[in-house]
Structures are given as C-alpha cells and as structure tokens.
Design brief:
Blueprint (H helix, E strand, L loop, with lengths): L23 H8 L11 H16 L11
Length: 69
C-alpha cells in the first residue's frame, strides 16, 4: 500500500522546525480577560466575576500592558 507523501514520517529533514507549544499561562491569558459587573448582577454573578479577575491577576496576565494599569 502506498501512502500519500504528506502522511509519511521523515527524519533528518532540513525543513522548518516547530517551536515549543505555548505555555499554559500564555494560553489562559489569551482567553481570560478581566471583566466588570453591573449593579443589576446577582451576588453569584459578582462572585464569579471576582474569581475570574483574581485568576487573571494571579497569572500576571496583561502585566506591563494598558489592561493591567
């Protein structure tokens, strides 16, 4: 059986190398953003917003950017 070339594993190729996968922090910080609550929100919603923002801050997401100043 012949395999398409794109499915074959090659070794020692001089093609581009892959960089390391992004860190957990980089992935989380890319999706996690600080959010605000409204006076109309329930106590539970406000608790969840505060938890989200605490996680954002604990991972130092946005540090050194306008978002965290």
């Amino acid at each position: 059986m012949l395999l398409p070339i794109g499915c074959m594993r090659t070794t020692g190729s001089s093609g581009p190398t892959r960089s390391s996968p992004p860190s957990y922090q980089a992935v989380v910080c890319k999706t996690l953003k600080p959010i605000a609550w409204s006076d109309k929100d329930t106590a539970e919603t406000i608790r969840q917003v505060k938890a989200n923002n605490a996680a954002y801050k604990s991972l130092a997401c946005g540090q050194g950017t306008k978002e965290n100043q």
